[in-house]
Every structure is written in structure tokens, then in C-alpha cells.
């Protein structure tokens, strides 16, 4: 690795050198989706960001165990009703039909954007026994209490020796002043106490019999259980969207520490929010997109549809912890950038170093390329800064294009530098950023046949045919290039 990997730790509010507990093994846990509705773009951004983190850690040689859960019970509305249970009632389906339907949809969306599967994908309903065991332990430790069939975590008692709110920076006094009147508040000792187990109302579909009541687990409990089950009582990285920082992740820390007397994760990472033309993305404002709408272009704020790799490229042009602003113009610019990168990938993959014993090494060019390659590592080591990394890849792309057009001699940079430039450009695009050429783009044998026909028409001076073929290819997103070395093509930028 070139340089040291540093991450901005939400817990300590500092940029820290990443040091795994048990190198080369790394434990990575990311809070997964609640499967009761279509996947939204915030989900896509979060899981894409952690996909890149997962990819880069593996690229550096770490043995990563990536755990991303599926929430299939326990995510409560303000009324105390479970979201999945409510959806099942509205659609007259079994809750597990809702879970399966939206889990399948989630997996399809992840595959569409080339987001890798985690190593383990546990579900809340599959770990009820472990959740009940954690509740028992918290009760035994004096940090939880039963009330009217429900079990709550005792925030005031926990806070006597610990600090609830240290992740988000919130203070107990301020939280008490902001507390709303929600269902079940009368059962609690303190308005801030959160449910570990919730007694089910008679009409509630999803419930399990326990010594406390027929009920269901609290939402915050599942991740505390599953992260420590698969990664240990202490592990390396815990992540999710910024909206989960409070109260979900705050409660996770309290539960895990209250059970094991250990901080669960050493590094906490959070992705930031999405905006549209500078405004917060919101259904009420009519400016929110579903992934399929971005791809089809079926939205009043879009002039066209965009391919999944264009959208991935667009999202990675911003650091995961910064706000990402969507606009039609920004997506069009990202499309041009993606096509430039795709063209570069196609060109460099076909290049093989040609020895030239008479060539003189251009030390300045060689030094520049080596620096650009180093900078890709430095950028990713700077808290996984994909935006900076893409900028350095474009610098490498300029050198690739210069060689392709004959402005720079391949031999002038030497075989070692050429091979490093080639491997860095390909590996950082495909392995680290997950950017690939899309199958939907024209190419392959059919394109070769058309280009051969184009060349024959040109040699025969049949310029009407040349123009016809050129126009047809351009309509399909392909630009024909007449070069000194022969006929070539590129994705239209």
C-alpha cells in the first residue's frame, strides 16, 4: 500500500489511521434496508459507498468479512406499528410475502449498479433467539426493565457510567426537551428509553410468544445482535446513512456496551444526504427519484434516461460524507465523463508495450505518470475519496489518449511505467470503483462488421454510404474515428 489509509471516524470526530483489530482480517458491518417499499436513491448511495470501501480494503489485501443485514421486522412508525406489518395489511399479503418481494427488488437494484453482495446477509427474524438473549443480559445487568409486557432500555441508568449521545454529539437534557408524545410513553420510566421488546396489539400480524408477552423485537436491537454475532464483541467498521446516526446507531452502542462492556466498533462511517437542484430530496416536494426513473428518464426533472454505470460514476464523483446534489445537467456531464473513461478502458486494454531500443526515455513524462498512479492510492487512502481518485484517473487517461493518438511514444515512458499505468487505470476503475463497460453499449462482432463495411465504402469513395454508416453508429452512441493508424471508434461523449 502506498501511504496509510485514514478514515474520518464519526465517533471521535477525527481522521484516524485505520488499524484493524486483527490484521489482515477486517470486520465491516453496514445497516441494510428495511424491506417494505421500493429501494430509494439514498439506499443506493449508501450501499454503493460501502461497496467501494469493501472493494478497496480487499484490493489492499485485507481479508474482509462484510455483513449487511435485512430488516424484516421491528422498524416502527411513530404510532408503534411495524412498517412491514402495516404494508402487509394494506396489500392483503403475508408479511413474509412483503419481505420476499422487496428483498428481491433490493437485490436486483444492487446488481444493476454493480454493487457486490456482502459475505453474510442476516435477517432480524432469523436471529430472534439471539435478540432475546441480549435482552435477558441487559435486564440482568440492570440496564433494562419490563413494563406492561414490553421491555425498555434504561437510558438514565446507562448514562450514570456511560455517555448516551457521544456518536451524534447530542445531550440528554436537550433530547428530553425535544421528546414527542409517542405510543407507549406511559410504560416508560424515562421518555428517552427505547423498546427492546414491544408487546403486540391484538391486530398486529407479526408477533412471537415470550415470557414478557406476545410481541416483537425493537428495531435498534437487531443490528447490535447481528453485528457482534458475526464480527465479534469488538470489530472494525460500522456504517450506514447519516439518518441512522441518531437514534439507531446511538442505541446500538448503548446496547452492545451495556451487554459486553466493550465498544462494538472502532470506526463509524456515515454517508450524507441527497439533494436535487440544491433542495432536499423529498416525496412531498416532488423531486425524489426512484432508481428505475433515473434509468428510464421517466421524471419531469429529467430530459433523458441514464445508464446504471453513468449513475454510479456520478455518485462516486462526490465523497461519501458530502452532500450529493442531483440535477439533469450534472447527470449529463457525468455521462460524458463515464464515456471518456469507458473509451480509455477499451483503448488501454488493447495496448501492448512495443519495445524500441532506439527510443529515449522521457523522464518528465515517466515521472508524471508514476505520480498520477501514486495519487490514486493517496486519494483512496484519504477516507476513501472517490472524487479525488476519479480526477487522478482522468490525468492518467490523458496520457493513454496521447499514446493512442501518437502524441506520446509508448517507448518513451518505458515498459515498467507503461505496465503500471495500464494496471492502475484498469484496477482502480473496475476493482476499486466498480466502473465497467456496459453490455448495452454497442460493440463486439456486429460493430466490427459495420466498421469493416465503413472502411470498404471509404476506400471505394462511396461517401453517401460512409455518411449513412457514420450517422447510424452515432445514433447508437458510437463515433467513428479516421486515424492515421486506421479506423477506430469511441463511445460518444
Structure keywords:
493 residues, alpha/beta, five-stranded antiparallel sheet, 16 helices
Radius of gyration: 27 Å
The first-to-last residue Cα distance is: 34 Å
Q: Roughly how much helix do the residues carry, as a percent range?
A: 40-55%
Shape: elongated
Query: Mean pLDDT, as a whole number?
Result: 90
**Major pleated sheet:** 5 strands, antiparallel
Describe the model.
The chain is α/β, with parallel strands linked by helices. The chain is 45% helix and 15% strand. The chain is built from 16 helices and 16 strands. The strands form 5 sheets. Strands 5-6-7-9-8 form a 5-stranded antiparallel sheet. Strands 4-3-10-11 form a 4-stranded parallel sheet, sandwiched between helices. Helix 10 (308-316) crosses helix 11. The radius of gyration is 27 Å and the shape is elongated. The mean pLDDT is 90.
Helices and strands in order:
Layout: E1 6-9, E2 14-17, E3 25-30, H1 41-59, E4 63-68, H2 83-91, H3 95-112, H4 128-140, E5 144-147, E6 150-153, H5 155-159, H6 172-178, E7 195-199, E8 208-209, E9 214-217, H7 219-231, E10 235-241, H8 245-260, E11 265-271, E12 274-276, E13 279-280, H9 291-296, H10 308-316, E14 324-326, H11 328-350, H12 363-381, H13 386-404, H14 414-432, H15 444-459, H16 463-475, E15 478-483, E16 486-491
